[in-house]
Amino acid sequence: MRLLVVEDEPEMALALQAALRRHDMVADHADGIATALEMILAGTYDAIILDRGLPDGDGLCLIPKIRQHKSSIPVIVLTARGRLAERVAGLDGGADDYLAKPFAFEELLARLRAVMRRPDHLSPMAVKLGRLALDLDHREASVEGMRFDLPRRELLVLEALMRRAGRMVPREILMESVFGMSDEVQSNTLDSHISRLRRKLCDIDAGVTINGVRGVGYMLMEQA
């Protein structure tokens, strides 16, 4: 899952990004409305966490602009403005959810899962191919019901491939799914992650293979 955190307080933004990474998510950061809109139009995000008190205006002003271009992206407002009238204004302004600071990170995670399950944003919570299954809600991979652990990057690669099983996934899409904009990535880093993932899937007899076309992308397929 790739998220955009729109937050002008550096410490809060860094803390959110670090916490989201620990839960196998990629999180980019924008510190204002204009920057956030540029990133949203240029990239692909599964959800947006949006502060209201931003240097260039109320974060709620961003929501109509998002809806004009990418109407289905869930937006959770995360702000210190927690009075009833402010919460009502946020929800009426198009936010999918509204959470006041201070907050518990576990609640934010639960709200993210909830908005991703709503009909407008619904995607499968589990995907299967061969003997392999991936629970997208709990970020767990398993073979015939037996869970196996993967490092965060390899799990993100697997998620991107399984969501598009049987189709060639361009390198650019995989890079967006696995690395944040602030990550320093060498040219062969993605290939290294895929090589290790391919070996592990073979070792556990997952019933799938990862095929690649040099310079183009990779495809996950069920073994014949």
Structural account:
With 224 residues, the protein is α/β, with parallel strands linked by helices. The protein folds into two domains: 2-121, Rossmann fold (3-Layer(aba) Sandwich), CATH 3.40.50; 126-222, Arc Repressor Mutant, subunit A (Orthogonal Bundle), CATH 1.10.10. It has eight helices and 14 strands. The chain has helices at residues 10-22, 33-42, 62-69, 84-92, 105-117, 152-163, 171-178, 189-203; strands at 2-6, 26-30, 47-50, 53-54, 57-58, 75-79, 97-100, 126-129, 132-135, 140-143, 146-148, 169-170, 208-213, 217-222. It has a five-stranded parallel β-sheet, with helices on both faces. The protein has a four-stranded antiparallel β-sheet with strand order 8-9-10-11, with helices on one face. Strands 12-14-13 form a three-stranded antiparallel β-sheet. Strand 10 and strand 11 (146-148) form a beta hairpin. The radius of gyration is 18 Å and the shape is elongated. The mean pLDDT is 89.
List keywords for this structure.
alpha/beta; five-stranded parallel β-sheet; four-stranded antiparallel β-sheet; 8 helices; Arc Repressor Mutant, subunit A; 224 residues; single chain; Rossmann fold; elongated; 39% helix
Mean pLDDT: 89
> Got a strand count?
14
What are the low-pLDDT stretches, counting only 5+ consecutive residues below 50? none
CATH architecture title of the largest domain: 3-Layer(aba) Sandwich
Radius of gyration: 18 Å
The strands making up the biggest β-sheet line up spatially as 2-1-3-6-7
Largest sheet: 5 strands, parallel
Q: What's the helix-strand series?
A: EHEHEEEHEHEHEEEEHEHHEE
- Residue share in helix: 25-40%
* Oligomeric composition of the shown chains: single chain
Strand composition percent: 25-35%
Morphology: elongated
The structural domain count equals: 2
